[in-house]
Design a protein that fits this description.
heterodimer; A: about 525 residues; alpha/beta; six-stranded mixed β-sheet; globular; B: about 300 residues; mainly alpha; two-stranded antiparallel sheet; 12 helices; 2 strands; about 0% strand
């Protein structure tokens, strides 16, 4: 299912870089990368987490000054670290992390970052909204313009990043993992949009994680491994799937096994998580729960399928104790915790892999060891000294991170310095350390590379073998089908269907769209 | 009552001017604790140059110049040199307080107060009774303060420059990816703040009074900073907070003149400070937003691209 190839390359390459190299301390992020990208095509850039994809994207966008090498965009040499020059040469960038200030309204953020000509130095609010109303049709229309960025759900923020990039007259569009946060439907729409852009002459460089997505949209593919360009750019039609994955993983590539987890002792067939007739108030962008009945037994993975925005966040939030329940009960490990604080639920054995790992899962500015130790500070060690030993905490955190193969330099570096897959490993190393009764995993593999995804899935299975319960909330149906012992479908804040494997994709899909009531 | 309102306006004007300086700095992500030092440097320079040349205009211009220089120095220390913003700000305040006291002795051979005949023009004069007292005898700076607040609002909330400034303060990565140089925007914000502090200091020395006295700012720079927090770093909010503190000050001043019998004088004198503590507490309620601003402040210490 290769996409039709774009117009034949002509003239100067859209991007030409020579011997680019970037090091962060002892870590070599990019080494001697030379690359030429033909104009008017969709180029995919793939590689594992930490392979240097984001660093390369940042160098091209002028946000990272390379130690060695230089690069040209559309034949013009771009001075290292010059964002404006890169923009002037026609480059627009969609970052992996959000690049819009949280307190800005959508209209203000677009005015700040999109730099469309014709704006006035001093404006009235109405003028600003008028200027941008056509661009935001797909993320909620005019009403969204006065919404603050921080109040937008993750999906809408991601869409807005793309809207922002496309609002300028881009000749070269650089997207860093744009699909990481999108639903399958939104990904198809994005790819369609990229193809149309390509056909209108725009060159596209897109960082992707899933080979399926590469095959669906790319004309050429390049592979980075440990900071070096190991393949490409090669025509998609000339590269086999096998060769591609070999290039990504490398000769030393081997799947690392899941870590054994210690769970709390309990008898099988015990109900570890139970919601009975639970309802909650609605949030700004999601329905609340309505009379949800849900049970997770010991030793099973229960999947929650649904189109995003149908109450998944409310569900996780209610279980975690962050949203109060208006009706019904929540029980963890047999104890009623309906009104209990989050900390008590944690002590009772609830573990959580949240939706947005960077903002909800870790404190970005806190050091790794502190992030890793957070659960141990909950007061599990009663009877011991109220003082803690920093050295011991750091040592234990380092051991746990080594066990879970987090790639890091020192335990004191901030969590924001880790790549996505490594942050997820860090969170798992904390959440699954010991005493797990039930794990709520929200989109645990979203945005992770192949190896990290497999690692997380194996960890969830390992948890099931060890007799814990897992509630897996995901928008990836393949993942749900592969892992779940039972599958519940959430729609409009209600559980509308329950399935046992083997699953019928069509029936589940119908339930997700509300066709089954 | 009229006297209290008149005193309120007179006390509030320097506070509001300096609070606007604080708002510009705060929005750019800088906890500017050098406001006090800049304010007193402005007050001194106005009197010193004004009295020497006999021209209040030259005095004010010189004050603006000195404050711009000090502000550029402050930017150089916290930006390119990477010093801690809080410490550098307190250092700037020390330089202002100590430097003006030293210069007073070294240049004019005066201890305590330097009196002058130059004074800012007062558009409305010679009203001795009725409601007119409220607006009489105020310097031109009291009159233009509302215009400056309005201008600050337009610049910060309704201009592209304001968007860039807010982005730099809140999320420098966003600013950088929009092609904005955070370091330069911070310099601009700090310079604007410096000029506003000069105006606030000048109003204090030759607007409300006719002299420069050692330590005459007496913590007003810090109270203005509190007004910034109290007003949720919105220009209008900070202006009302400044007005409120001016009112508290006026009650204190008036009660010194007419000692009431029922309330001990000391308690009345505490009012401005009690209100300030109350304001700090209220400011804490906006914790979420101040945390965002702190994130911007933390980023200051990182190298700029």
């Amino acid at each position: 299912m290769t996409a039709p190839s774009g117009p034949a390359p002509a003239g100067a390459p859209a991007v030409r870089c020579r011997s680019l190299g970037v090091s962060f301390g002892a870590v070599r992020a990019l080494h001697d990368v030379s690359l030429e990208l033909a104009p008017g095509r969709i180029h995919a850039l793939v590689g594992q987490n930490g392979a240097g994809k984001t660093t390369l994207a940042k160098v091209l966008g002028g946000l990272q000054v390379p130690d060695t090498g230089d690069f040209h965009i559309a034949g013009q040499e771009i001075p290292a670290g010059d964002v404006r020059a890169a923009k002037a040469a026609g480059l627009a960038m969609v970052h992996q992390h959000f690049s819009l200030p949280p307190s800005f309204t959508v209209a203000e953020a677009l005015e700040l970052t999109a730099a469309r000509p014709g704006g006035r130095a001093v404006y009235r609010r109405g003028d600003l909204q008028q200027r941008w109303q056509d661009d935001v049709a797909e993320i909620g229309g005019t009403a969204a313009l006065s919404t603050r960025i921080r109040d937008l759900p993750v999906e809408a923020r991601q869409s807005l990043e793309i809207v922002r990039a496309l609002a300028t007259e881009a000749r070269l569009l650089l997207l860093d993992e744009p699909t990481a946060l999108l639903t399958p439907v939104a990904i198809d729409a994005l790819f369609e949009r990229l193809r149309r852009l390509r056909d209108s002459g725009v060159t596209i460089l897109v960082v992707l994680h899933k080979l399926r997505e590469v095959a669906a949209v790319a004309d050429t593919v390049s592979v980075l491994r440990d900071g070096e360009l190991v393949l490409g750019p090669a025509e998609m039609s000339e590269v086999s799937q096998g060769r591609l994955s070999d290039a990504i993983v490398g000769p030393a590539g081997h799947a690392d096994s899941a870590v054994g987890v210690r769970t709390a002792a309990h008898e099988s067939q015990e109900t570890l998580l139970e919601l009975a007739g639970t309802s909650s108030g609605e949030s700004a962008f999601e329905p609340g729960l309505t009379a949800v009945d849900l049970r997770v037994e010991a030793g099973e993975i229960v999947g929650i399928a649904g189109v995003e925005g149908n109450g998944q966040r409310s569900l996780v939030s209610v279980i975690a104790g962050l949203t109060s329940v208006t009706e019904g009960t929540v029980r963890i490990g047999g104890d009623e915790v309906t009104a209990a604080a989050p900390a008590r639920r944690r002590l009772r054995g609830l573990r959580l892999v949240p939706f947005d790992r960077n903002t909800e899962g870790v404190s970005q500015s806190a050091p790794l060891w502190l992030n890793q130790s957070a659960l141990r500070l909950l007061g599990r060690h009663r009877g011991r000294s109220p003082l803690i030993s920093l050295r011991q905490y750091k040592r234990q955190a380092s051991e746990a991170m080594d066990l879970w193969r987090v790639r890091y330099d020192t335990a004191t570096q901030p969590a924001e310095s880790l790549s996505g897959g490594n942050v997820q490993r860090l969170i798992l190393s904390r959440e699954l350390a010991d005493g797990v009764e039930v794990l709520v995993a929200a989109q645990p593999t979203r945005g992770l590379d192949f190896a990290a995804t497999e690692f997380v899935r194996r960890s969830l299975r390992g948890l099931r073998e060890a007799g814990a319960g897992v509630l897996l909330v995901s928008s990836d149906l393949d993942e749900l089908f592969e892992l779940s012992d039972r599958l519940l479908v959430i729609y409009g804040g209600r559980i509308v269907a329950e399935f046992d494997g083997p699953y019928d994709r069509r029936a589940v899909g119908d339930a997700m769209t509300g066709a089954v009531r | 009552m009229e006297q209290i309102l008149a005193t309120t306006l007179r006390s509030a004007a320097p506070l509001v001017l300096v609070a606007m300086a604080g708002v510009f700095a705060f929005r750019a992500g800088i906890f500017h604790l050098g406001l006090e030092g800049l304010m007193i440097a402005g007050a001194f320079t106005t009197v010193a140059v004004g009295d020497t040349t006999g021209s209040v205009e030259l005095g004010v211009l010189a004050a603006i110049g000195v404050c711009l220089l000090l502000s550029a120095l402050y930017w150089w220390v916290i930006g390119p040199l990477g010093a801690n913003v809080i410490i550098a700000g307190l250092g700037l305040t020390s330089i202002g307080l100590g430097g003006t006291a030293y210069a007073l002795g070294a240049i004019f051979d005066v201890r305590g107060s330097l009196f002058t005949d130059v004074v800012l023009p007062r558009p409305v004069r010679d009203v001795t009774s009725g409601a007119g007292v409220i607006i009489a005898e105020h310097s031109i700076f009291v009159w233009i303060t509302p215009l400056i607040v309005l201008a600050a609002w337009v610049v910060l909330r309704r201009s592209r420059f304001g968007l860039r400034l807010a982005a730099v303060g809140e999320y420098p990565f966003a600013a950088r990816s929009a092609g904005v140089n955070p370091s330069m925007v911070r310099l601009q914000a700090i310079l604007i703040a410096g000029a506003l502090c000069a105006l606030g200091g000048a109003e204090l020395s030759v607007g409300a009074l006719r002299n420069f006295t050692e330590n005459m700012t007496n913590g007003r720079g810090f109270i203005a900073f509190v007004a910034v927090i109290f007003g949720a770093w919105h220009p209008i909010g900070a202006a009302f907070a400044g007005l409120f503190f001016g009112f508290a000050d006026a009650i204190g001043i008036q009660s010194q003149i007419n000692i009431t019998e029922r309330v001990p004088r000391e308690f009345v004198l505490m009012i401005p400070f009690v209100l300030t503590i109350f304001a700090v507490w209220l400011g804490g309620l906006w914790r979420r937003r101040s945390l965002e601003a702190e994130a911007g402040y933390a980023e200051l210490r990182e190298p700029d691209f």
